[in-house]
Protein 1
Amino acid sequence: MIIAISVVAFILAIILYSCYVSVVKNANTAREALSGIDVQLRKRYDLIPNVLTIAKKFMEHENDLFEKIVMLRTQAHNCKSGTKEKFEAESQLDTQMKSLMVNVENYPQLKSDETMLQAMRTYNEVEENISAARRFYNSALTQLRNSIQIFPGSLFASCAGDTSDFSYFETDPASKAPIDASKYL
Amino acid sequence: MSKDLNKVQNKVFSSEFKSFCKKQFSKDMKSLEEERKKALLFALAISLGITIGFLSVFFLFGEYASSDMKNGMLASYVFFVAFSWIPINKYKKKSKNTIMPKLLAFVGDFQFVDTYNKRSSIVNYVNSLSLFGKYNSIDIDDVLEGTYNNINVSIAEICLKDKYTNSDNEKRESIVFDGVLLSFKSFKKFKTRTVVKSEHIKIFKNAKQVNLEDPDFEKIYDVESEDQIEARYLVTPAFMNRMVEYSRSNKTGKITVSFENENVNIAVHSTKNWFDVPILKPATDVSIYKGILFDLILILKIIDALKMDQNIGM
C-alpha cells in the first residue's frame, strides 16, 4: 500500500514539476520574444533620423510630418516594452513613416536619390523584421497564456513572473479600415 | 524579360513546335538516330554475348568453381554489362548537348553541365545543406544551370543513400533522398538556417521548432530554424499560403525548402527519372525533347508558385 502511494506521489510530483518547467520556459520565451521586438525597434529608431536627414534636403514643405515623427519616436522609445501604450505609439509611428514614404513619390529628385532609395530599402527590411519579431512574440505569448491558464499549469502561474503587462500586438484600427482605391487612382 | 511558363508550355505542346523541331534540327536528329541505333546494337550485342558466355562457363565449370571464383565472375559480368552501356550514355549526353541548348532557350539560357567535372563542387554544396537526413553516398545524374527571370538557377538530379552494414554483416542501403535539388540566390538576406519540411523529424543541430500561425500550413509542413525571428522573416503568412497552395496543386512531388548559404534550396522528392532521353525512342521523336522541356518547366514553376523570382518582401 505504502509503495503504491509512493509511486503515485512520485508520478504526480514529476507531472507537477514538468508543468512548472513548461510555465517557466514559456515565460522566458515570451520575454525573449519581447526583447527580440525591442532589438528590431532599436534598428528602426536608429534608422529614422537618417531617413529624415536625407528627406529634409528635398522635402521642404513636410515639416509638420517630420516633427510628428520625431515626437512619436521619442514617445515610443520611452514607453515600457510589451505594453499596449508602446504598441500604440509604435503603430502611430509606423503610420506616419508610411505616409512619409508615400509623400516621397511627390518629390522626383528625392525618389531617384540613391541614398534615399537605399534608406527606404533598409527601412522596409527592418519593418519586415519587426513584423517577424511581433509574430514570434504573439506565438510565444499564446503558448505562455495557454500554459498558465490551463490546469495544472494554472497552479504555477505566479512562477511566470509579472505577466499582466504582456499584451498581444494588434494592428491599429486605421489599417483594418477598407481602402478607398479611388484616392490613389 | 520575364518568361511566362504557361505560354512556353502551350508553345511546346502545340503542333508548330513539332514542325519547328523537324525543320531546325532534322540533320542533328538524323545523326543522333544513327548513333542511337549503333549504341543500342552495341549494348545488346555485348550484353547478349557476355550473358551467353558466362552462362556457358557456369554450366560447364560451375560445380568446380569456388564461391570466390563465382563472385569474381559475377563482378566481371556486371562490369562488362556496364561497359556495354558507355555508348548509350554517350548518345544521351550528345543528345542533351546538341539539340537541347537551343530548345532550352524557350525557357531561359539553360544548359546541361558536365557532371563529371562539376561533381566535387556539387557534392560539397549538397553536403553543406541541412535539407537532408543522414547519408553517405551521392549519385548525381543530370545537372542544369541557367538564368530564369534574371535569377541564376542550378538544378541537380540527385540520389542520396545511406549505405550501412547490418548486424548480420550484410551490406544494405536506404534511399534518403531521390529527386531534384533546385538552388538560387535569395532576395532576402539571412544569417542562420531555416528549413521547411513535410516530415516531422529533426534534421540539423541547434535547430528549434518554429510554431507558425497558419493551421493549414502547420498540418502539412514543419519549420525548423536556428533563429525564431529570422524564420518568421522568411516564412511570412503570404509564403505559407503559397506553400499550402502549391502542396494542394502538387505536380512534382512533395517539396522541402531550406534557406541557407545565402540561397533558397528546394528539394523536390520524386523518384521520376527527370530530364531523361529514353534509348528505346528514336532520336527523331520530338516527344523526347518535349519531355525534357516539360520537366524543366515543372521545376521552374515552383519558383513561380512560391513567387521566389520577385523581390516583394513576402
Note: Chain A touches chain B at residues 33, 36, 40, 124-125, 128-129, 131-133, 135-136, 138-139, 143 (CB under 8 Å).
Protein 2
Amino acid sequence: MKGQHLGEFEELLMLAVHGLGDDAYGVGVQQLVSREGRRVSLGPVYTALARLETKGLLRSQSVPGTLQRGGRRRRVFALTPAGVRALRHLQHLRERLYGRARLQSARPH
Amino acid sequence: MRRAQPPGSWLALLRRLLPASTREEHEGDLIELWSLRRERGSRWLGASFWYDAVSLGVHAWICAADWRSWSASGRHTFTGFGHDVRLAARVLLRRPLFSAAAIGTFTFGIAASTAIFTIADRTLVQPLSYRDPDRIVVLDPFAAVIRRDASGVAIQPAALTASSEFLALGFYEPGGLDLDLDQLGGPVRLTAAAADSGFFRVLGVPPLLGRTLAPDDGGRRVAVVSFDAWRQHFGHNPSLVGRSLRLSGQAFTVVGVMPRLFAFPEAADVWIPPAADGRMTGAGLRARVIGRLADDVSIPQAAAMLANVKEAAFGERQIGPSPSMAPIADYVAVRAKPTILFLVGLVSLLLTASSASVASLLLSRLTQRAREMRIRNALGAGTGRLVRQILTESLVIATMGSATGTVLAFWLVRTFAASLPVFVPGVELTMIDLRVVAISAALSVLATALFSLAPVLALRSTRSSGVARFGTPAVKRRWVASSLLTSQIAIALVLLVATSTLLSLVVRLTRSEFGLHNRGAVTFQVTLPASTYRTGAEVAAFAGRLETTLRSMPGTRAIGLTDFMPSSVGAKSLAHLEMRERPVLATGAARRESHATMLVATHDYFRAVGVPLLAGRFFEPHEAEPVVILNESAARMFAPDVTRVVGKRLVSPSAEIVGVVGDVQLDVDVPEAIRAMAMAHVYRPLSHSPPNGTVAVAVDMAGDVPSVVAAIRRGLHDIDPSLAIDRVSRVGDLPARIFASEQLTLALASVFALVVLGLAGIGLYGVLAQSVAERTREIGIRMALGASRAYLRAGIVCVALRLTVMGIVIGAGLAVTAWRLAWASIPSLDVPNLHLLAADAAVLIAVSVLAAWIPARRASAIDPVEALRAD
C-alpha cells in the first residue's frame, strides 16, 4: 500500500521524533536533524510531520510551552504503534540490503 | 525574568500571516528559533526569522484544510477556501476556451492599464515628489524678470525678494543649453539648465551628494549633476564631487549630485549658475521665476502683492497683463500631460469594457451551468455558498489575468521604452515599480468585485423564482446581460469618437507647417562656444561668413539665419511693445501697446523657410536704421488690417516697422495661457542684435538632404573646423517629428478602440446565440404557426439593433461629457462633429448586424418538427 511507504526524509523525521522522546516538537526535531547534518527549515518539517500523522504513523498533542518560546503552546509528536512497526520494518529491510551490499562490494578485494 | 523576544511589530505582523488554528504553536516555534539563533550570535537574525515565518506560513496555509481536520476531530469539511480555489481551477480547466477568453480579455485590460498608468506615474506624479508641491508656483513672464548687470544677476522687481508672501524665490532657464562634456571616446552632449541658489531652496530637495548651488556661486564655474547623468556618464562615481569636468571647453567643478527623482526642468543633466557660461549674456535672461509660498498665502493673494510691488517699482510705465502665477504641476511634462491624461481616460474605459466583457462571459457560463447549480442546491448548498463559489472563480480569473497582465505590461513598457522619449525625455521606464504593481493588483480586485456582481445579481434573482426553475431564462438575468452589452457598446462608441477626433487632430497638426511653407529647406543649429565667440560682433561676423560661404555653393537658392528653431523648447525673451501713434483711430480693438517675443533674422531667412510677406518688405542685407518686422499676430494686436502698421514707429523698442510676415508657431511646450501671448513675434535684423551662442540656419538648396548636409558640413569646416551642426531636419519633416507623441497616442487609441469593438461584437454574438438556443422551442412554434424565415431573421437582427442603438445613445452622451472633460486639459482638441459621430455609429451598427447574422441564420434554419420533437 502506497500510503504506508516511508520517504527518506520522513524516515529521518520519525527517527528524530523517536529519539527525542517527550521533547519531540517542531523546533526540536528541526534542530536535531539540522545538527546531525541535514539543513532543513521549519515549513517542510511541519509539512512532513502532518503527512505522517495523516498516514497514522505519528500522533500529536498540544502541551503548554516553555519560557523560551514566550509561553506559547507547542505540539508534541510521538510514534504510534503502526509508526514503530513501519520504522522497525524499514530498519530490517535496510540491514539486510546493506549486508548484501557489503558482501558484494568486498568480493573484488 | 523576562527573556528577549523578537520585536513586537514582527509578532503582530506574524499573527496576520499565520492561520488561526495553529497560530500559537507556530508563533512559539518562531520565537524559540529566534532566541536560539540569538544565543549563538547568528548575524542574520531578522532575515532568518522572516524566512522561517514565510516557510511556515506557506506550509500552514497549504495544509489549512488538514490542520482544520486536526482540530475538527479528523472530519473533512468542504468549506475551505482552498477547496473553492481547487474547484474553481477544475471548472476553468474543463472549459479551456472559455477560460482562455476570460483570462485573455482580463490580461489585455490589466496590461494596457498598467502600462499607461506606469507612464502616467513616472511622468506626472513622480516628478512632483518635492516637499509640498502645491506651495511651489511658477511666475508668468510678466510677473517678474531677470536682469543682468555689472553687479550680477537678480530678480526684478527687487522688492519681490523681500516680500513675506514667498518663503523663497529662485529662477531657472527652461530651455537648457547644450554643452559638450569632453571625455574619453568623444564628446557627449549634455543639457545644462541655468539656475540660482533660490531655485534649489524653493524645490526643497536635498542633494544626494555634496551641495546644491549657493548664493555666492554667482559667476563661478560650478555644476550640480543630475542622477541620470551621474549614472550614465560618471558610473555612479561617489567621489565625483570636487572633481573638475570640461563642458564645451570650460572647466566646471562638480559641487553636488541630485537624487534620482529630481528632474526639473525635465531635460536637465547639469545645473549651473546663470553667469557661469558666457553665452548667457544680454539684457534679459529668458528665465522663469519660481517661488515657494508662505504657509497661509494663497495664489491670488501672492498675485495681488505682486501687482502692488510692480506698480510701486514701475509706476505709470507698468502696463500689460496683471501678473499671475501657476502651481508647478502646470509646468511638469507640459507637452506630454494632455496626451497622457487622454490615454489614462481611454485605458480606464478599456478596463471597464473588458470587465464588462468578462462579466457577460461569466453570466453566459452560469446559464450553461444551471444544471450543476440546481444539483448542488438540491444537495444542500445554500445560495450564499454558490455565490461564494462564483466569486472564487472570478477571483481566480482575475488573479491569473492580472498576473499575466502585469508581466505583459512590463514587457510592453520595456519594449516601448525606446519610443518613450517621444512622451517625455529622460524618463526611465524600464524599472519595476512596486507601487504600480500594487495599483494593478487593486484594480484586479476592484474588477473582480465589479464583474462578479452581474452573475451574483442573476443568481439572487433566481431565488425568488426558486432554484428549481434556474434553467429557464430569468428576466433579470437577461436584463443584466443586455445592460452589460449596452455599456460595452457605449464605451466602444466613446473610444471610436475619441480615436476619430484624435485622427482629425493629428491630420490637422501634421499637415500644418508651423507657417514654414518651404518644405524642402533644411534647418539645423550651430552652437558657438563662448570661449571663441565672446562678443556679439564675433557672432555676427560668423553669421555673415557662414551666409556668404553657403550662398556661394552651387544650387543654393536662399539661406537665412535666426536665433530659434521652429517649435523649439524654451521661453524666448518677451518684450514690451509700444507704438508712437494709434494706427487705427478710436476703435476699441486697436491698442497702443502689447507684448511680443523678440527674435532675430537675416534678410533672406523668410524666403529660405517660406514665410510669406503680408505687407511692406523683408529686411535689406545691410540695414542702417533700427527696423523691425512684425508677424501677423503681433500686427493684429495693433490693427485688424495688418497693412496699416507698415511705416509706423515703435517707441519700445525704438524702431520702424517695415514689414509684416506670416505667423510661425514657436513654442509647443508652454501652457496654453501663455501660448497666445507667445504667438506675437517681432523680428530684428540679426546684425543689430546678434544671438547668444546658438544660431539656427535654414538653407534652401537643390539636392537631397544627405548631400545638402554634406555640403553644409564642408562649408562650416572651412570657417571653423571645431564647430558641429545638430538638430538637422527638413522643414517638411518637422511636424511629423514634433507631433510624434500625438501619432503614437493615435496608434494606441486605435488599438484600444478596435479591441473594445471586437469585444462588443463577440459579446453581442454570444448573447444572441444563447438566446436563439434558449428560444429554439418558441421559434419552432412560431414557424409552425406560419412565421416566415425572413421575419424571424429580422426579429433577431432587430434585437441586436435595439441594443446597439441604446448603446449608441448612451455612448453619444458619454462622448460629449468626456469631450468636455478632455477639452478642459486640451483646448486645441477639435469639437467632435456630427459626421464623425455618425460614421462611428455606422461602424458599430455594421459590427452588430454582422454579429447578429450568424445566430439569425441559425434561428431561421430551425426545423419546427425537430424543435418540437426534441422537447
Note: Confidence is low (pLDDT under 50) at residues 65-78, 280-284, 463-473, 584-590 of chain B.
